[in-house]
Design brief:
Layout (H helix, E strand, L loop, with lengths): L1 H15 L3 H4 L6 H14 L5 H26 L1
Helix pairs in contact: 1-3
Length: 75
């Protein structure tokens, strides 16, 4: 559920900034981040738990780093 919340938050940020903020950070595949929410929220029993685990292990650390960078630059 944390992934759903994070993905939804980035979707809203993207919408409110009309795509300008996330575009400044091309190192993240934002479409994939945002789309993951739909898969998790609506996939129900079709969710591949190993894929979710891989996302948490491999992708979340770089997403956190980018988020820290975003916050620092916005201050």
């Amino acid at each position: 559920m944390s992934l759903v919340t994070v993905d939804e938050a980035f979707r809203q940020i993207d919408e409110k900034t009309e795509g300008r903020l996330l575009a400044r950070y091309p190192e993240v595949e934002w479409h994939d981040v945002i789309e993951a929410r739909n898969v998790i929220a609506h996939g129900y029993f079709d969710i591949d738990v190993e894929q979710v685990f891989d996302i948490c292990q491999k992708d979340i650390p770089s997403l956190i780093e980018t988020q820290r960078k975003m916050i620092k630059e916005l201050r």
